[in-house]
Amino acid sequence: MTRKSLPTAVRPYVRLDADGDETLASVSRKLVRELYKEHGALLLTGFSGGLEEFRQLAVDLCPVAIQNDSRNRVTLGPTQDVQSASLGTLAFPLHPELSREPWRPDACFFYCVSPPASGGMTTVCDGVAIVRNLRPDLRETLASRRLKYMQAARPEELQFWLGVSDPNDLVLADPPPHCPYRFERIGRQVVRVFTRPLLHRPMFTDELAFGNFLLFARFLRGRKFPLLDDGTPVPDEWLQIVKQISDQLTAPIEWKRGDLLILDNSRFMHGRTALTEGDGRLIATYFGYVDFAVPGEEEPPNAIWRRPGFHPPQANLRAKD
């Protein structure tokens, strides 16, 4: 029988160890759902199986997948929904997957096809724990603010969302109900905008969490993106405090072949330690929308990305998240 170890102060995820010859196909989906909702992060280790068994478990929980269009990824297997993690070597700051877009997936699945020789550990951090450890005054300040994600809208994106590649101001001012953006014209350029709370409520807890694109953009790319709701950059002081706290709470995953990590992407952030060029590390990923979702109030009813066949134009922000 599968051995279950609940999270500890230094290990923020549930650990499920296979007993004997258990396979990924035999893993109780009901158990995974229950632990996912309660704790938000699970590591399955020692289970036999391969890439297709990994994919089937992910599909059983997340029937609708979404691809990450950032560079340095390749498709793994015959379907398009399983990709490699970034094949680069840089260390990555903490981030939720695709948090730069309004269709952030509910869940992230990571499967170790080939472990790194050294380095290349995936790091995980509970965004709820970050907020618990903030000073009360800073927590109150952050909870009162929103983040503004603003990017240039390319013609193919305008065509996808508005039905025309060169919309006039009347069309820009009245996007269809399924569109998650508002549009602004700045000089000759059209930008797409959406906002989210700086601290948000994850899908399966009433506590606030920190989980957004800020750490990735600021500490890897040197970008002040996203902005605060008033258009000003998020102060460096705030992010340095969050980084200091998250560094203390972050736990590494030292990959073994066949390990499977499942994260609630509305609660947990993940990152990566640096690795050496040509290391051979290969981590398969699957991102999607769980079949037991409780969508938040920021999401439109019957969101288009929760339906099969959602393929928006590739983003012009080529971040490696």
How would you describe this structure to a colleague?
The chain has 321 residues and is of the alpha+beta class. It has 2 domains: 3-129 and 244-306, Clavaminate synthase-like (Double-stranded beta-helix); 147-197, no CATH class. 21% of the residues lie in helices and 25% in strands. Strands 1, 2, 3, 4, 5, 7, 16 and 18 form an 8-stranded mixed β-sheet that branches. A 4-stranded antiparallel β-sheet has the order 6-17-8-15. A 4-stranded antiparallel β-sheet has the order 10-11-9-14, with no helix packed on it. Helix 1 links the parallel strand 2 (14-17) and strand 3. The radius of gyration is 20 Å and the shape is globular. The two termini are 36 Å apart.
Radius of gyration equals 20 Å
Relative helix content: 10-25%
Number of strands: 18
What fraction of residues sit in β-strands? 25-35%
- Classify the fold: give the CATH topology of the largest domain: Double-stranded beta-helix
N-end to C-end Cα span: 36 Å
Low-confidence stretches: 316-321
